[in-house]
Design brief:
Blueprint lengths: L4 H11 L24 E8 L7 E9 L2 E6 L9 E4 L4 E4 L1 E6 L37 H7 L3 E6 L6 E9 L5 H4 E10 L21 H37 L10 H10 L5 E5 L2 H14 L3 E5 L7 H7 L3 E3 L19 H8 L3 E3 L11 H10 L4 H6 L3 H6 L17 E4 L10 E6 L2 E2 L5 H9 L4
Parallel strand pairs: 1-4, 1-5, 6-7, 9-10, 10-11, 11-12, 12-13
Antiparallel strand pairs: 1-2, 2-3, 5-14, 7-8, 8-9, 14-15, 15-16
Helix pairs in contact: 4-5
Length: 450
């Protein structure tokens, strides 16, 4: 989607009617700050709430960052800023739950712009929130297509750290933050099995002594992870005992074990990075054994484990739709059709762009591709709006247009998942957001060059 450069410029001028958009480049940021929260009414627009019936022509009103009314005959509050939505459609903002947005800028050749990982194998106390750069150029070009919030995750090691949920507007991480601690990222040591493939590379350990050495190393790493989880459980029990009985001394504070508490207590999910079927099964089995609430991230071969995922109620953040097939004899559309297969099997899932930052803006195209290969259009839309919000625990506030939910919404001139559609207005947390970004800046700078 897309927003054409010329369309973006027109939309910014139109947004001036809202009286609040800072349009000039501010301190060199490619992401102009959003305006203030106002009472806004969008009238005569097609409204696609994702849940419930679509309105061919209706009004949506939001104030103080929350949706206050939706309907065909909604009255406009006195003093509200009014947008004529004739010929336009209103959708909830999309969400990508598989990014490292704000943590990674230029992967090759500019190490100082990369802050997605820490040294060492076990870093549960590392939180993405503290590394996010609000002025990342990726943010502006991502939100302009209608992606209003993302899950940004660290990487590297076995326990990479904690992912954070952020809105894609605001000049500080605090202004962007939806939820600082939203999930613990774990990548289990690779299980044996697999083989050669032109898209996926070598999947096993090799043979003979090499295989035995790799197996021993894997078991050693798994034992270390299990020990960390066991220590965290013991630490939690000691804290609980101390809270109930003041005569019991409180355990010495430990930042790593403190960070593990919401995960061993089942309060927050654990994001397991896994693509191969054998690794997906290993992750699900490990989570079940350890009493963790699991989410699979990546999930290239998730349809092969659909029965297990369904039985264990483990959702998938599917992020490999555009990958090459991993085996030579795979069908060309094996990844394109995977979301449809997961839906048919009753597995909960959401679609992600499968990219940390620069290509997250392709999310609507990717969901549209899934719709072209068997997923219903309704489910394709839910897979980038409601379902990722539900999977990450914020479905009561985000993901659909309902009274009381956060006013993260996008106004477009066509189907949200259609590549030719242009964004006309964008609101995050009820604030009008400029459609200016690094791309429009470069275009306007050089368009008259001779």
């Amino acid at each position: 989607m897309r927003t054409l450069i010329q369309s973006a410029s027109r939309a910014v001028v139109g947004a001036l009617a809202l009286g609040a958009l800072p349009l000039q480049a501010q301190l060199g940021s490619p992401n102009p700050a959003p305006g203030p929260q106002q009472t806004v009414a969008i009238r005569n627009a097609r409204i696609v709430p994702v849940v419930g019936a679509e309105l061919a022509s209706g009004t949506i009103v939001f104030s103080a960052g929350k949706i206050t009314a939706i309907g065909a005959n909604v009255s406009v509050p006195a003093g509200a800023q009014v947008i004529d939505g004739t010929g336009l459609s209103v959708y909830p903002g999309m969400m990508d739950a598989g990014t490292s947005m704000g943590l990674a800028e230029i992967p090759q050749g500019a190490n100082a712009t990369m802050d997605a990982s820490e040294v060492g194998s076990f870093n549960p106390n590392s939180i993405a929130y503290y590394g996010i750069t609000p002025h990342s150029a990726h943010i502006g070009v991502t939100r302009v297509v209608g992606i209003t919030h993302v899950l940004s995750s660290p990487s590297g090691g076995i326990v990479s750290g904690q992912a954070s949920l952020v809105n894609l507007a605001g000049w500080t991480p605090a202004a962007m933050s939806v939820q600082q601690k939203a999930g613990l990222v774990i990548t289990l040591p690779r299980a044996g099995g697999g083989g050669f493939g032109f898209g996926g590379g070598f999947g096993g350990f090799g043979g003979g002594a090499n295989n035995a050495d790799a197996t021993r190393q894997r078991e050693k790493q798994l034992d270390s992870l299990k020990a960390l989880i066991a220590d965290a459980r013991a630490y939690a029990q000691a804290l609980d005992a101390s809270a109930k009985d003041k005569s019991i001394p409180r355990p010495v504070a430990d930042v790593k074990l403190d960070a593990m508490l919401p995960y061993v207590r089942g309060q927050l999910p654990v994001l397991f990075q896994a693509d191969r079927a054998v690794d997906i099964k290993a992750s699900v089995d490990f989570a079940s054994e350890q009493g963790l609430t699991a989410i699979i991230v990546g999930g290239r071969e998730a349809p092969e484990q659909a029965a297990l995922l369904k039985a264990k109620n483990v959702p998938v953040l599917y992020g490999t739709l555009r990958n090459l097939p991993s085996r030579e004899d795979d069908a060309y559309d094996i990844n394109y059709s995977a979301p449809a297969k997961l839906a048919a099997a009753g597995v909960r899932f959401a679609i992600t762009a499968g990219d940390g930052g620069a290509e997250v803006r392709d999310l609507p195209h990717i969901a549209g591709m899934a719709a072209a290969f068997g997923l219903s259009k309704e489910d394709a839309l839910k897979s980038v709006t409601l379902w990722p919000a539900q999977i990450t625990g914020i479905g009561d506030r985000f993901g659909s247009l309902e009274v009381g939910k956060v006013a993260n919404l996008v106004v477009v001139d066509g189907d949200l998942l259609e590549a030719r559609t242009n964004t006309k207005y964008l609101f995050i947390d009820g604030r009008a957001v400029s459609l200016e970004n690094r791309h429009t800046t470069l275009y306007n700078t050089h368009k008259d060059r001779r």
